[in-house]
């Protein structure tokens, strides 16, 4: 596709990494027990929402790069805040590395994400970020309900 | 900028409109009184969050197109669910029209959004969508707390 670029591949990655930095700060704000036990309205705990994000970002990208359509597994054995943050930090450089391996020419090719969601790769990647924003925002409400001020939404540094 | 396009202008718009459809369905799910009175942890009501979105999307785009740096005003006099939905529906075709007027070549030019936020236009537009996902997700938690099932996150039709 050759027309004017409205968003470069590098800009998309920077955008995503900014969101990851904000999500990391959101995890940090939770008191340890609440991270694994607090919920509202029968929803999942914030730790479980974070495990979903962990099971999508790096594994999803790896699937795209290696063309392996393995199902996702949200049930990751991470049981402390330090474990969640350590995995988050381990995944970030892997995400940068894997994202870099997707040729720009492939962003409009279909990929059957997790063997289930067949969409163009650009659409899969937008979903990763959207889903992270969505679940992190739920964490913001949990924090407010716990009387804790969330990080600033616009701060992505 | 001439390299391979990872996301076209039309795809970005389709992505945004899909989110707008989902946000509209989220408004519809709220019982009228809760929309204007229910909150968690001292946060704004979902009606107030929607007014913020209304004060950003169409006015922000209009500012970009007309190069007017007017401040935003979240305090919009809409006091019923029907009013909020009607304004949402009025704005959608305006958004399509205004978005279409932004030349692809301009997406990397800086624009001082609302006279306050000086970023490239692509970054302003990503913020509009991110902020909508963020606040809508907070509405999802309100709905769950009220015992109401939110719409499906992945359904953008």
Write the layout of secondary structure elements.
Two copies of one chain form a homodimer.
Chain A: H1 9-29, H2 32-37, H3 46-66, H4 81-100, E1 110-113, E2 117-120, H5 121-145
Antiparallel strand pairs in A: 1-2
Helix pairs in contact in A: 1-4, 1-5, 3-4, 3-5
Binding site for a divalent metal cation (chains A, B): 135
Protein name (chains A, B): DinB family protein
InterPro entries (chains A, B): DinB (IPR007837), DinB/YfiT-like (IPR034660)
Which short descriptors sum up this protein?
homodimer, 157 residues, mainly alpha, Four Helix Bundle (Hemerythrin (Met), subunit A), two-stranded antiparallel sheet, 5 helices, 2 strands
Description of the structure:
The structure is a homodimer of 157-residue chains. With 157 residues, chain A is mainly alpha-helical. Chain A has a single domain, classed as Four Helix Bundle (Hemerythrin (Met), subunit A), CATH 1.20.120. The first copy, chain A, is built from 5 helices and 2 strands, in the order H-H-H-H-E-E-H. In chain A, strands 1-2 form a two-stranded antiparallel sheet. Chain A is globular, with a radius of gyration of 16 Å. Chain A starts with 8 loop residues before the first helix and ends in a 12-residue tail after the last helix. At the A-B interface, helix 1 and helix 5 of A face helix 1 and helix 5 of B.
